[in-house]
Amino acid sequence: MSIIVDSTTRVMVQGITGREGRVRTKLMKEYGTNVIGGVTPGRGGQEVERLPVFNTVKELVDNLGTPDATCIFVPAPLVKDAALEAIFNGIKFLLIVPDRVPLHDVLEIKAYAERFGARFIGPNTLGVLSPGKGVLGMIGGRAKTAREWFKQGSVGVSSRSGGITSAISYYLSREGIGLSTIVHVGGDAVVGLPHPEIMKMFQEDPETEAMVMFGEIGTSQEEQVAELVKSGVITKPIVAYIGGKGAREGTRFSHAGAIVEGGRGTRESKIRALKEAGVRVVDEFMDIPKTVKEILGK
């Protein structure tokens, strides 16, 4: 078992005929993901990677049935329309890849997702990968690389940085630590499924024994995880690393979701909250694999 995606997940791609849509569809399909088709308005009747293209989500649903998930690869100004079209047609999970999606649009997507019982990851995300089962988005870049870098196992990874998502997962796998699911929650200030929600999903996943969390300055995601641990909602061990050691107030660190303002969202406050909750917080990035091994008794 894994969270979000496995070999049975039926996946649709919105924006499948665009440059990113084509390349990432090839990655997902070659990795073994069950991609069933795609949507690009005005391009219905074409094929991408031998998959049918439809003009609307409704046309795809009418012809192929309702997908379990959609991957959205459209320009940022069109993301809201694409996401709402998917939600209104019964898709319950959305991966919103583009960055620079207007905040108001994300809030509207979030409101409709809650109303219709849907969930989403992103915006500004590399995606989700369950080793040996399936990938949504672009983690790994190529199917061959993804298969070589990320090994199947029992450690869940949740990260706020795209590059670090891949790096953590690679170094864990290189040290013989297999992974259940890898999640890049997205780099924006408001995202669909932040760290706390992903951690709760890992807690409920029987395949996941421990979790690794890469946090950053800005937002209160990591403090919320600490509260979940304190309250007993999360009982599985977590190894955390918080980036942004040199950041000062007003600093923007890498992307929109990582900014310190008014003394809130600091690296120190996150580390303090996590340590008080009993989470293993490492000071050096390369200490992550060693600490995970200790926790797993390897």
From TrEMBL:
The keyword RNA-binding does not apply. GO terms for biological process: tricarboxylic acid cycle. InterPro entries: CoA-bd (IPR003781), CoA_lig_alpha (IPR005810), NAD(P)-bd_dom_sf (IPR036291), SUCC_ACL_C (IPR005811), Succinyl-CoA_synth-like (IPR016102). It holds the Pfam family Ligase_CoA. Residues 4-101 form the CoA-binding domain. GO terms for molecular function: nucleotide binding; succinate-CoA ligase (ADP-forming) activity; succinate-CoA ligase (GDP-forming) activity. The active site is at residue 255. GO terms for cellular component: succinate-CoA ligase complex (ADP-forming). The keyword Ligase applies. Keywords: Ligase, Nucleotide-binding. Signal peptide: none annotated. Belongs to the succinate/malate CoA ligase alpha subunit family. This is Succinate--CoA ligase subunit alpha. It comes from candidate division WOR-3 bacterium.
